[in-house]
Amino acid sequence: MTIREFKMPDVGEGLTEAEILKWYVQPGDTVTDGQVVCEVETAKAAVELPIPFDGTVHALLFEEGTTVDVGQVIISVQTAGAAADAPVQEAAAPVAEAAPAAPAAEEPVAEARQPVLVGYGVSTASTKRRPRKAPAGTAAQNGTAAPAAVPAAAPVLPAVPAQPAGERPLAKPPVRKLAKDLGIDLASVVPTGDGGVVTREDVHAAAAAAITPQAASAAAAPVAPQAQAPVAEAAAALPAADPSARETRIPVKGVRKVTAQAMVGSAFTAPHVTEFITLDVTRTMKLVQELKDDPDLAGLRINPLLLIAKAVLVAIRRNPDVNASWDEAAQEIVLKHYVNLGIAAATPRGLIVPNIKDAHAKTLGELSESLSSLVATARDGKTSPADMQNGTITITNVGVFGVDTGTPILNPGESAILAVGAIKLQPWVHKGKVKPRQVTTLALSFDHRLIDGELGSKFLADIAAVLEHPRRLVTWS
């Protein structure tokens, strides 16, 4: 019998630690390949970690609530046998009491690509082999106590290029079935077999890094004026306050910590400018109702946000330079010929901004389906870090809280963000007479390094023009 170790994986590019929220197994429990053993919280989301081999839980190395560095062993499993490249130690050596091995000469290894989680690429680092373990009894013969076994170095995949885009990955049927069962996209797996064939070990390596994000179970994304603000749920997620205490201190970590850092970096790196416009959206609200009654759109979620998102996409088509980012290192403006439309979502663990990939290429029905999926995923706590990467422009709907408008801070890496205020019945001059109309206020913050006042004003004015006269969704498309 051998002991195999499972280390805290790299759960996202740039993340170095994660907090263990909950263990789903205990010592003595039987685990199977792909079974989720614990939930951890990173700086981006809460995720569940599956274990990549079968066996019996030998020891849990950290308690719930402990923050663990990436690469540290978090659980050991007793197995019937061990793969040649797996981190193994003798079953007789207690994991929790392993002592450092005696210094030994280290053999340098050429730079290799370290495997990380699917969807985050790989990082290049210089690695070394751990000192070899002395044979049993050698140290005793020299008059010293034998050191405890030292875990072998984590397996490193050779630098084999991924499958070319558009080509079907090479793999045997059993390997394809394994990948399907574990939810692994073969196209994202780096092959190590002869001729670029994906092996069973490659899939296991990807499965060890695969994540199933679990944010708060009752998160409510602010994506439609009809949605309810998750104030009570967010409050429930905070520590209970002592009524007699004058202060309560709440540790800043996880999603809130990285959001705070990102917002500070954005606010003090990109020169923000915010412009406002108040407009009559009565015609848009009427169109929303008509679309809801349209049998061709039956089953789709039709709401004001859908048409606001479509208006933003139309305005980007007319003002493409808005959809860009600033490359500080290269001192270049990067124009994006695609739109990954971000929708800010409030959760008890903090603000997240998942985005709809290639939103510019979607029909109204497809955009509706994508928005619905985004909302459902956020509420189920399954928004993955990959879904929050590579956004190009963001919409934040503060109107769900009854707020008229705000001055939103740019999502890092983007050049503009639109805040949508509450839609309210207000007196408005319409055709020369004061009448009750549906009115809202939009606020656009943009990076003044690449968007000047003229471009920003035209973009915001075009969004307002579409929402005031939604027929422009057709005439300007």
Give the helix/strand layout:
Blueprint (H helix, E strand, L loop, with lengths): L1 E6 L9 E7 L6 E2 L4 E6 L4 E5 L4 E6 L6 E3 L3 E7 L8 E3 L21 E3 L8 E3 L12 H4 L28 E2 L1 H10 L14 E2 L1 H10 L2 E2 L17 H6 L17 H14 L4 E9 L1 H12 L10 H15 L5 E4 L4 E4 L5 E3 L1 E3 L2 E3 L2 E2 L7 H16 L13 E5 L18 E5 L3 E7 L2 E15 L5 H16 L3 H4 L2
Parallel strand pairs: 12-13, 18-22, 22-23
Antiparallel strand pairs: 1-8, 1-9, 2-4, 2-7, 3-6, 4-5, 5-14, 6-8, 10-11, 15-25, 16-17, 18-21, 19-20, 23-25, 24-25
Structure description:
The structure is a single chain. The chain is α+β, with helices and mostly antiparallel strands and 477 residues long. The chain has ten helices and 25 strands. Strands 15, 18, 21, 22, 23, 24 and 25 form a seven-stranded mixed beta sheet that branches. The chain has a five-stranded antiparallel beta sheet with strand order 3-6-8-1-9, with no helix packed on it. Helix 2 (173-182) packs parallel to helix 3 and helix 7 crosses helix 9. It is elongated.
